[in-house]
Design goal:
This protein is an alpha/beta fold and 346 residues long. It is built from 14 helices and 11 strands. The chain has a 6-stranded mixed beta sheet with strand order 4-3-5-6-11-10, with helices on both faces. Strand 10 and strand 11 form a beta hairpin.
């Protein structure tokens, strides 16, 4: 490995063909922004954020269903903090809560077990969003519900998988020269999950960790590869080619692939997972949540997460104290991280 100072100098001096690299992990987006990596690069090297934030890619019809459930008698919607402020077609869960809806914020899905056991007369609906990284946790939750004979917990799922959406991005006209593959997702799927995409489109994928130095090294590797196909694992302490087989088996036991809707990107075939039919009793009505009224409100989340525009080009770009789009709501959203780290503007 070259000395990081030499790598930084080479990246700053680069004067070859224009290159665009996409990271598809919200934590990578946050680290790139916090460490000022984009500002260290030659103007001919561009970094764009892809659909790596689970909150950002969740469609408005899903939020609408959560809001409706939270207002139902003897029902409580349980969710992570970021989901509270994402607006559906009319309101957010936080706004619904102010109107008397029953909403609880937790830090871990397993917290809902105690809530349900302490109050068996209330049905607890967990907002199960995320990618391959969080899917094993939901599988464990279902397994625990079965083991404890808990019947008053349901999941409203909006779980998505990475390869299919990257395939969609690559299949459309773009200037992407390579990908910083998602580190957390790769722990579960293995780096091998990106090999078919690399072969299909002739692009390099570099699996990276989350420190600034690791991401800078990943960018340097992509520059050196200049569009040559291959999957390169720069995060071997946590990622293997085959991934976490036990976690994959656990997820496959309770979930199956399905079509999924992505905010502003429409329905992407086989890009999500849902509870298997034999576990339908634990589903809160996840089917058919495919409409996305949010794309009509002037928000450009769909353009941002596809890497077609920079967050600062969105007409609703502004303070996270008054977020208009999901990419500004979430702490992993590209708009939030651009604003917080003054990225993209002097």
């Amino acid at each position: 490995m070259r000395d990081l100072r030499e790598i930084a100098k080479e990246l700053a001096r680069y004067d070859g063909e224009p290159l665009t690299f996409m990271e598809v992990c919200g934590t990578h987006t946050a680290s790139i922004s916090k460490n000022g990596i984009a500002d260290m690069l030659s103007p001919k090297i561009r970094l764009v954020s892809g659909p790596g934030c689970p909150v950002c890619v969740t469609v408005s019809s899903y939020i609408d269903r959560l809001v409706a459930l939270s207002m139902r008698e003897n029902t409580c919607v349980v969710t992570f903090g970021d989901m509270l402020r994402v607006r559906g077609s009319e309101k957010s869960l936080r706004e619904a809560s102010a109107e008397g809806a029953n909403v609880r914020m937790v830090y871990s899905p397993v917290e809902v077990i105690k809530l349900a056991e302490d109050d068996p007369r209330t049905e607890y609906v967990f907002a199960a969003v995320g990618f391959e990284t969080t899917a094993p946790v939901y599988a464990i939750l279902v397994e625990e519900m079965i083991a404890r004979s808990i019947s008053n917990i349901k999941l409203l799922t909006a779980l998505k998988t990475m390869p299919a959406v990257i395939d969609r991005i690559c299949s459309e006209p773009n200037a992407i020269s390579g990908f910083i593959a998602p580190g957390h997702v790769s722990v579960i799927t293995g780096s091998g999950a990106f090999e078919p995409l690399s072969d299909k489109y002739g692009l390099p994928f570099v699996v990276a960790g989350f420190e600034g130095e690791e991401l800078l090294a990943a960018v340097y590797a992509l520059v050196r590869l200049k569009g040559r196909a291959g999957v390169y694992n720069f995060y071997p302490r946590a990622v293997s080619r085959e991934g976490n087989l036990k976690a994959q088996e656990k997820v496959a036991r309770y979930f199956e692939p399905c079509d999924a809707a992505w905010r502003g990107m429409g329905v992407i075939p086989m890009s999500g997972i849902r509870l298997r039919p034999e576990y339908a009793a634990f589903d809160a009505g996840s089917g058919g949540l495919l409409s996305d009224a949010a794309i009509g409100n002037g928000c450009s989340c769909h353009e941002v997460i596809a890497g077609r525009i920079s967050p600062v080009e969105c007409p609703l770009y502004g303070s996270p104290d008054d977020p208009q789009g999901a990419c500004m709501v979430s702490s992993e959203g590209s708009c939030f991280n651009y604003f917080e780290n003054k990225r993209g503007r002097a």
